[in-house]
Amino acid sequence: MAAETKTAPATNKPAALQQGATAVDDVTRALPHALGPEKSLLSSMLQDPQEYIGVAIEEKLTKDHFYLPSHSTLFGFLIELFEAGSEVELVSLVQRLLDRGLLDRVGGPSALTDLYTYAPSPGHFRHHLQHVKDKFVLRSIIQNSNEAIAQAYDAPDEVAALLDSVEASVLAIREGSETNKAPTIKQSVNEVIEKFQALLAGEQGAQGISTGFSELDRMCSGMKPGEMFVVAARPSMGKTSFMMNIVEHICMDQGKPSMVFSCEMSAFQIVQRLVFSRSKFAMSQLSRGYTPTKGDLQRIQRAAMETASSKLFIDDTAGISINELRAKARRKKRDEDIQFIAIDYLQLMKSRTKQAENSREREIAEISAGIKGLAKELSIPILILAQLNRGPESRSGKSLGVPRMSDLRESGAIEQDADMVGLLYRTAYYAESEEEKEAEAGKAELVLAKNRNGETGHIPLTFIADLMRFETGAPATGLDE
């Protein structure tokens, strides 16, 4: 019994006094903390668990937010009891903690009694909760800064990678993602059931983001958060047009903020193509002496106004590195809450690590993995274009020009990282005679060669060359574009 009445064990000391304290001018400084608000939160939860533990869960309070290890341990145990539907009252709580060998770690019975009698004002719960969260943010900033300083002193070879890592950790603090990264299995199951019920009810929001191509949407149920969709083709197949048709539908028809990274075309060229494709006016007509009608001008003006008022962000940095792209995307997600990213195209991007300098395959693998990681980090779908090698041209007969997933340049990493892979081609491009070209005019196809969460297959499309536009379905018989 004498042993049980000793002072609280070392684990009850503030975490900063055990480790992580910072020394400035030879004076040890404790990390930022708010012990009074921590005690207030725990006292409220002990006195009225149904009310205040529920609020704490809603506010995403975690064990890591508490400065004292004893407070952290007790909070974690209270959450466990609450989620199990167990009664929370002093006598049974002491016994449960004793049975689990946790009683000393929370300071013993006297510490629990002290918390019960702390008697905070219930109206101050959220105010005190914010105090605790703020101190946790300050401690996180100090911890991440110390780690960054230590790594910087080590003079790493990959300075760009270190800068990217530091920026990601700071943004993670701002967004609170560090406390939400590991959902419990129960939370994941609940999300799955909620999604299933929404799909049964036919709720549109249960689907991913629509691409505007009905058959593609049917096969993949839209593009989901965290997914990487690779659209690959040989040059001159219209993959940029296909990408911009999807961007137009998402950003302008659905009103979702979107970002385009273009390594090949300028922002002016992209906007010009977007405006005239949306207005369905072929600029090539002007070179043939055509004078736009009043209706043409009205459509162009309307398309221009819709484009100008949309939340479309374009970055046309040539040869952008994966680290730079990630940094810009994170800032746009934070500032504008972008819901979709499109990249044109993968092989024009760079990775500036030492390992990538001597291996193009390694460089592509790093870029591909970086884009997939960004999609998961920002929880948005990312569409990226890619070039195919000359495989389609080397085939003969009916297989001439038909792409395969193995035709992807440096394909191993891309195939592995992508959630969906679409291979775009137009049969008229490979026609040998004028008669064949005329017969195949406008015919296009997207081969959905990989679909991690759905079916694969061939999706017929119509390509309107003058408008640089794809539409759902095969061309009507006799179409002559």
Describe the structure.
The chain is of the alpha/beta class and 481 residues long. The protein has two domains: 179 residues, DNAb Helicase, Chain A; 265 residues, P-loop containing nucleotide triphosphate hydrolases (Rossmann fold, 3-Layer(aba) Sandwich), CATH 3.40.50. The strands form two sheets. Strands 5-4-6-7-3-8-9-10-11 form a nine-stranded mixed beta sheet, sandwiched between helices. It has a two-stranded antiparallel sheet with strand order 1-2. Helix 12 packs across helix 14. 31% of the residues are buried.
Annotated CATH topology of the largest domain? Rossmann fold
- In CATH, what is the homologous superfamily of the largest domain? P-loop containing nucleotide triphosphate hydrolases
Strand content: 5-15%
Largest sheet: 9 strands, mixed
Task: Enumerate the strands of the largest sheet in spatial order, edge to edge or round the barrel.
Answer: 5-4-6-7-3-8-9-10-11
Radius of gyration: 29 Å
Percent of residues in helices:
40-55%
The residue ranges in which pLDDT falls below 50 over 5 or more consecutive positions are 1-11, 15-27, 177-181
Number of strands: 11
CATH architectural designation of the largest domain: 3-Layer(aba) Sandwich
Number of domains: 2
What class would the helix/strand composition place it in?
alpha/beta
Secondary-structure element sequence? HEEHHHHHHHHHEHEHHHEHEHHEHEHEEE
Question: What average pLDDT do the residues reach?
Answer: 80
* Morphology call: elongated
Q: In CATH's first tier, which class of the largest domain applies?
A: Alpha Beta
Distance between the termini: 93 Å
Number of contiguous helices: 19
